[in-house]
Design a protein that fits this description.
By secondary structure, the chain is of the alpha/beta class. Helix content is 25%, strand content 29%.
Amino acid sequence: MTRVTVWNEYRHEKAEPHVAEIYPEGIHGQIASFLQAAGFETQTATLDEPEHGLTEEVLANTDVLIWWGHWAHGEVADEIVERVHDRVLHGMGLVVLHSGHMSKIFMKLMGTSCDLKWREADEKERFYVIDPTHEIVRGIPESFELEKEEMYGEHFDIPAPDETILLSWFEGGNVFRSGITYKRGNGRIFYFQPGHESYPTYYNEYVQQIICNGVAYCAPKRTTYPVYGHAENIYPIGGTEK
């Protein structure tokens, strides 16, 4: 069974009553609930826990880490970022949601500013499936809509994705690469754009299915990390293959 840790700042829910009304158990609690219902082994971690809830033991028992952050990216300790980064390179999957695009861990893995255009205007968002063969969009129609979402728009300052799976259009006219994947070391990364705290996005059936599919996609596929550094010849000159 794939082991998933859902990480959330858990600040909006405690400071803003309208967010707490939408997510009474926190954004992390809502995400964990539908993942658990889908058969994943889930646990949660939040910013204000010791070591942000991401201890060596927790990460050692995590196959896929989901990351939701917004207000407090700068409060995440560099030591924890390095710890998560190392685990991704060694094969742990990472699903980055919404404003997690500006998290320290995503920016470190991308090596760019990860900046974009944004606007809060209660706009309709329409998603289009760009690669219908991809497992992340299994069970998803060729397009679907969210009645309201925060607009994220191009240009999105990221390296060229390994795969672009979803493209979004907002009624204000902007478009955005809303579902993309990368590989870093042995780890797989899925960035998925929707999830503004003021909207009930994580109750949408298609959003839930895409996150579940993304977790399955990002789950570790190999366990042996390459050995780097000085190496002897495999087949010395004049030798024979064994």
